[in-house]
Amino acid sequence: MMSQDPFEKFRALLETNHEFPCVYTHKFIGAHSPIFKTSVEEFEKAFIGLTRVSERLSASGKHLSLTYDYQAANPEDVVQLMIATQKLNDLIYII
Asked: Which of 3, 27, 58, 75 could be disulfide-bonded to 63 (CB atoms 3.0-4.6 Å)?
């Protein structure tokens, strides 16, 4: 029987590879668009302890890569960050 929780394996990896509380590095890429920018601004406001550490525009100027450090108390904090990231408009990829 398969688990109903799509983040079960991810939680297990977090628990194995991180000692909580910790600083979790979170990276994702989106379209270089006003829709993505607005979505990211709302995302940043939703998470206390989230700090943007880098922003890089692709050579073509079509994509924007963002890197954050996040003060996570436990694996569930990181899962909630991932869920919110998946909801970003014009998101292309979570690294």
From this structure: 58
Q: Which of 84, 34, 89, 90 is nearest to 26 (CA)?
A: 84
* Interior/surface letters 20-31, b for 16+ CB within 10 angstroms, e for the rest: eebebebebbbb
Task: Collapse the DSSP code of 43 into the 3-class scheme (helix H, G, I; strand E, B; otherwise coil) and give the result.
Answer: helix
Question: What's the domain count of the chain?
Answer: 1
Range of the domain at 85: 34-95
Tens-place pLDDT, residues 23-63 = 999 999 999 999 999 999 999 999 999 999 999 999 999 99
